[in-house]
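Look over this entry.
=====
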Amino acid sequence: MSMNVGAGKRGVVAAIAALLLAACGVDSPGDGGALQSTITLADAVRKVDDYAEQARQALGADVKFINPSKDYDFPCSNADGSPAKNWREASVGYQLGGVTPEQIPIFFQKIRTFWEKAGFAITDDDKKGPFLGARSNLDGFKMGLQANHLNEIYLNVSSPCVWRNGTPEPAN
């Protein structure tokens, strides 16, 4: 029996992204709760990349990002579930390269310490399994770290929903 490892990796990244999106907690433009200015999508893209790099550095100088998954223009949803025209989210996901099984608990502790120092609140903490999620108290960006049975670790960073140009566009 062969296993499509590439499909498995994409599935893990997609699962992390889905968990982080579900934890977004940002009002949709269709319910009137998000009609205020935000950072631009371009700023959100820069911040997800910056947060990912800060996390990589916190994990250790020898940590390498491999198998990137980037979606810098993901549609957020209106209140009815339909995609919003200019209400977007930026996200990046990476596998951490060269991880040994012994490093996994160390990486989880290092990322927890980094998040606590950087003003993130832990939102998901699977004590029995290998997932940890957090949300920035400062700007609402979300991060997740997940390991799997193949001893692979994935980091995902996503922005809150933002207006493409930073200005509300109620006619979505």
Summary: The mean pLDDT is 83.
